[in-house]
Amino acid sequence: xxxxxxxxxxxxxxxxxxxxxxKVRPGTIHAIVGENGAGKSTAMRIAYGFYTADSGDIxxxxxxxxxxxxxxxxxxxxxxxxxxxxxxxxxxVAENIVLGAETGGIASLDLGKAAEQIxxxxxxxxLSVDPRxxxxxxxxxxxxxxxxxxxxxxRARLLILDEPTAVLTPQEVEEFFSILRRMREQGKTxxxxxxxxxxxxxxxxxxxxxxxxxxxxxxxxxxxxAAELARMMVGxxxxxxxxxxxxxxxxVVLGVRDLTVTARDGKRRLDGxxxxxxxxxxxxxxxxxxxxxxxxIETLAGLAAPGQTTAGEVEFDxxxxxxxxxxxxxxxxxxxxxxxRHRRGLxxxxxxxxxxxxxxxxxxxxxxxxxxxxxxxxxxxxxxxQVINDFDVRPANPDLPARALSGxxxxxxxxxxxxxxxxxxxxxxxxxxxxxxxxIEFIHRKLVALRDAGCAVLLVSAELEEVxxxxxxxxxxxxGRVVGEVDPKGATVEEIGLLMTGGK
Amino acid sequence: xxxxxxxxFPLVAVLAAFVLGxxxxxxxxxNPFETxxxxxxxxxxxxxxxxxxxxxxxxxxxxxxxxAVAFRCGLLNIGAEGQLYVxxxxxxxxxxxxGGTVVDVFGTPVNYSWMTLxxxxxxxxxxxxxxxxxxxxxxxxxxxxARFGSHEVINTIMLxxxxxxxxxxxxxxxxxxxxxxxxxxxxxxxGVHLPRLGSFIPGLPERIPxxxxxxxxxxxxxxxxxxxxxxxxxxxxxxxxxxxxxxxYGGISTGKQIVLAMAVSGGLAGxxxxxxxxxYRYRYYDGxxxxxxxxxxxxxxxxxxxxxxxxxxxxxxxxLIRGGIFVDAxxxxxxxxLVEVLQAIVILFVAxxxxxxxxxxxxxxxxxxxx
Amino acid sequence: xxxIFTIALIFSTIRTATPLLxxxxxxxxxxxxxxxxxxxxxxxxxxxxxxAAVTHYTGSPWIGLLAGIGAGMFVAAIHAVACIRFNADQVxxxxxxxxxxxxxxxxxxxxxxxxxxxxxxxPKDDLIPWTPVVLALLLVGVTxxxxxxxxxxxxxxxxxxxxxxxxxxxxxxxxxxxSAVLLSGALAAIGGAYLSIGQSSLFTRNMTSGRGFIALAAxxxxxxxxxxxxxxxxxxxxxxxxxxxxxxVFKPWGEEIPVQFISxxxxxxxxxxxxxxxxxxxxxxxxGIPYQKEK
Lengths: 504, 371, 295
Description:
The complex is a heterotrimer. Chain B is mostly helical. Helix content of chain B is 70%, strand content 4%. Chain B has 15 helices and four strands. In chain B, helix 4 (80-97) packs across helix 12 and helix 12 (292-302) crosses helix 13 (307-330). Chain C has a domain at 21-210. The longest helix of chain C has 27 residues, at 173-199.
C-alpha cells in the first residue's frame, strides 16, 4: 500500500535517512523499529509530507506520488499521529478535528455537523470522547483518541502512529491494541513507529528494522523474536546489564516528608510523597511520564514552577532546605542532571568552556581578582578540559559551541559538569534519553561509580529497563504519589506495571 | 576569518540600505550619487566634518551600548529616549542648583543655586547623577518585567512618553527663565562645563562641540566589554539572555539579571546627558534628542551588540547625521529624513540575518512575557 | 463636575477611540495569528499620509481611503516578509517600520508639496468624518464572527496557538500569517486615514503621536478579544477626551492641572494594566515565535 523507495534526507550534517526503502502491505499492522535517532520518525514524516526528501520516491498503491505537504498526504488517505500531539490546547475536540478539513463554506463553520460525524466515528471505532471538551481538560489517553479521530475524520486509509504507547499505562496499551486490531478489521493499514520490542511482537504483522538512518532488516513478525530484532536494531547482542556490586547504604542524605505540590492551575502534581535517599545508594523512580516525576525533581532542585505552592518537608543532611533557592542547594552539595538538556541543561550558543561552569560561575576556579568578580580564563579552561577528558566528550574542543555536539556528548558534558562538583546528592532525570548506546553504557558506569564513592543518587527514568538495572531501591510513582516500592532485582515487569496503573 | 564573517552581514545591510535609499532618492527626483557624495563627503573634512561626526556619534555610542547590553540579556530597551531625557534634566538640575552664578538670556548675572560646589566635586557629581538617574528610569521596566512579567517593549515606550511629558513640565514651569521664548532651562554653572576637545587638540577650533564626553564614550565601550565578558555579572546576564531556563537551573536569578541589565542599560543611555548638557548646551534644552534612543537600536543591531561593533556603527551613523544636515541644507528635494529611512532599512536587513546567526536568543524571555 | 459629562464628551470619546479601535483590531488579526505587530504606529502613519496626499490630488476621500489601505498593506507586507520569510525578530522589525514611517512621509511630502512633512489642507467637503467611526464599530462584530465562526478564523487562531499542529492538519501556516499581517496593515491604515481625512484635514508629521502604541496596549488590555478590545479603546478614548475637557475646568487645589500630567494618564494606566490586571491573561501561545520546520 505504501512504499518508500530509496529515500534520503539530510538535516545540516546529519544524514537522517540514507537510501531508506520500506514496503507496507495493505490491511496490515506494520512496525518500524529502531533506537532513538535511527531515522524512523523522519522517514514517516516524509511519507506524511511534513518533510521533503532530498531524493527518492513515495508510492501509494503502486503509483509514485508527490507529497510535498501534509495536505497532499491527507488527500491521498494518509494520516499521522505524532509522538508529541499536534493539538491546539485551548480549542475544543471538534475544532481540533475539523481544523484544516472544515465543511460549510467560507462564511460559516458548521461545528454541529462535525460533532455528529465525530460521534459516529467514535462509536464505530470505540474511541469515546466529548466533542465539546477542550483539549486542555482531557487526559493523555483521551487526547490520543482525538488524534486518531482526526485521521479517521479525513478518511485516512493508512495511519502512521509515532511512538503511540510512550505516554500510556500498560492497561491503556492493551486498550490501544484492541483499537488497532479493530482498525485492521475495517481494512485500514497501520504503521507504528516504536522502540518497544514487546509491543512489536504482540501486535504487528510485519517489522522493518532501522539503524543509523538505514533499513537493516525486514521480517514477518511471526518468524522472528525479540533477540533477533534487538540484534538488528543495535548491531550486536544487547543485554542491558550494569555491572554493580550491592549498595552499602550510609546515612540519610535526602529526607522527603509529605511533599505536596500544587500547580498554578490548582491540580496536585505531588501528593504526600515521602522517601529517603542514603549516601552510597541509587534510589530509582519508575512510572509513566507525567505522573509527577518532573515536578518532584525540579522542586527538590529548587526550581519550582511559577505559581506553584509547595508543602511538606525536604531535608538535606538533616537541614530543612524547603525554602532555599537552587543556588543555595547547589552550594550545600546538590547536583542536578535535568531531563531536558537543551532547555534546562545547556547554553547552546555558548562554547563548552562557558557551559562547563554553568551553576558554578561565581566561585573559584571560574573567578578571580578583586572580590572574585573577574572571570578566570585559565581556571575555566582547566575545568572544561577536566570534564571533557574525564567524560569522553567529543569533539574535545572547549571552544566549540555546545550546539555542535551530538546528544550523547552534550549529555556527557552536563553529567561531567555536575560530577565535577563532588556532590553529596545527585538528582538525575532521563539520563540517557536520545543518547547512543555507547554513551549510555558510559553514563551508567559513571553513575554507579558516583554511588560507590558515597554519593546519594535519585534517578528518574521512563525506561523501565534502565531504572531496574541501576536502582538499588525502586519506587513507583503514579498520579503524584509513591504507590509502592519493589526490589529491582526480584520484581517482574507485570508487578511493576500493575503498580504503575493502580492494580486494576 | 571569523571577523570577516562577523563583518559581512552588517556590510550587506549597510550596502542594501544605501542602494534602496538611493532608489528612493531617485524616485523623489534628486540625483542619488550627488546626494550620497554630499552625505558622505561632508563627514570627512577637517576640522568640521570629522569634528561634528564624532560629536554626533557620541550620544549614539552611549545609546548603542545601552541597547546592546539589554539585548545581551534578551531585552529590547526602547526606552533609551526617556532614560536620557530624565538623566539630562537631572544633570541640569544638579548643575543649576549647585553651580553658582550664571548669566541669563538677557545678559544679567543671576544665581539660582542652593550653594556653589567646587568643580572637583560638582563635575563628578553631575556625571554620576546622569548615570544613576538613567539607571533608575531604566530599572523601572526591568522591575516590572521581573516582578509582573509585563513586556519591556510596551513599558519602555510608555515610560518614554511619561518621561518627556514630566521633564517638559518641570522645565516649563520651574526651570525656565521667565521671558525666555525657548523651552529650555536656565544655564548650568560654569563649574560643571566639560572642556571641549578643541582646547587640547591643535587645529580643532573650540566652536566645534566635540568634548570630553566623547572620551568617556570610548571608555564606556571598554568598560562594557569588560563587564559583559570578563565578570561574573556579565556571564549571568548573557546566560539569562541566551537561555533563561538554563540560567535559572544554574542558580542564576533571572529576575535580578533583568533588573541589573536594564539598570546598566539605562545608566549608559543617561550618559548622553553628559555630552549634551555638560559638554554642549550647558543647560537642559527641551527636545534636544534627535531620536538618539531609537537610533541606538539601529546602532546596536548593526554592531551586533558588541562594543566594538557599536563604536563602528555609531561612527557610521554620526557620519550620516552630519551628512544629513548637509544634504538638507544643500540639496533640492531630499531632506534629512533620508537618514531615518536609511536607518530603518539597516535595521530590517540586520534583523533578518540575526536569527540565522543565533546572536539574539530573545525567545526565551519573550515566551515568559505578555505582549 | 457635571458640566464635564456631556454628550460632547461621549462624542469626543468615540471620535478619539475610533483610530485606536481600527488599529487595535488590525493588531488583533496579526497577533492572534502569532505575529507581534508593534508597527501599528507606522502603519497608521502610512495610511494617514497616503490618504491625505491622494485625497488632495483626486479630490475624493474615498479614493484616498482606498489608497491609504493600499499603502498600509504594502508597508505591512514588508513586516510580513521580514518576519515570516526571514524570521526576523518581530519586535525589531516592527520598530524599524515605525522609524521608516517617521522618515518616508516627510521625504515624500517634501518632494511633492515642498513642505517639512505636512500635506496641503483638504477642503471640508472632501473629508469623511463619520464613515470610519461606523466602520470601526461594525468591524468589531465582523471580527468576532470571522474569528469564531468561520474556517479562516479557526485556522488563524490555531496558527497563533500551535502552528505545528495547524501545519500537521494541512493548514498553510505562513499563508495565514501573511494574510493576517496584511489585514492588520489595512485596518491600521484606515485608522490613520481617519486622523488625516476624517478628524482633521491634513497630514502633519508624526500625527499619530503614539496612538499606535496605545492601540497595542488596548489590544493587550482587551485580552486579544474583539469586544473587550473595543471596550479598552473606549476607555482610553475616554481618558484622552476627559483630559481635554478637564483642562481649565478641574482645579482640585485651586490650581490648574498642567496639561502634561493629564496627558500621561493613558500611559500610566497602560503600565499599571500591563502589570496588574492582565495577570494570567494568555497571549496566543505562539505569539512572537517564528514558525520553523525541520529543526
